[in-house]
Amino acid sequence: MASNTIIQCSPSTHTKRKYDVFVSFRGEDSHNNSTGFLFEALQKKGIDAFRDDAGLNKGESIAPKLLQAIEGSRLFVVVFSKNYASSTWCLRELAHICNCIEISPRHVLPIFYDVGPSKVRKQSGSYEKPLPNTKKDLVRIKRRWRNCKD
């Protein structure tokens, strides 16, 4: 699978829920502190949250298990942080989340970590910078992200 393509949410998987929550976050911004506490709190409450400990290296495709976890989740938590929008992988996760919501409506809970909601909404500050090496698919991802957040 090419790393610059948008993956469609599989309609056949939307009825099989494996996780209560999928958390989308930029690891370098929040993984070792706030999201760690979030995962711990969810676990203490008996909420099954998918945790991608392996992460992705630059240039790698989104792992199929990550896409399946998104498709198999009841709720999405998106941790918008200072560098979230500069991550191709975060935007691809978000695009896949938006795609899955279109097929099978679910809720998204946004968390704003070290970035104001208006920066995300108005796409200013670190959210206005163009993606490096923007390709046609990345433009579509960004457009889908804009539509999803509205």
From TrEMBL:
Keyword Transmembrane on entry: no
SUPFAM superfamilies: Toll/Interleukin receptor TIR domain
Membrane-crossing segments per the record: none
Keyword presence, Transcription: no
Top enzyme class: hydrolase
Origin: domain of life: Eukaryota
Protein name: ADP-ribosyl cyclase/cyclic ADP-ribose hydrolase
Native source organism of the sequence: Glycine soja
The organism's taxonomic lineage, starting at the top: Eukaryota, Viridiplantae, Streptophyta, Embryophyta, Tracheophyta
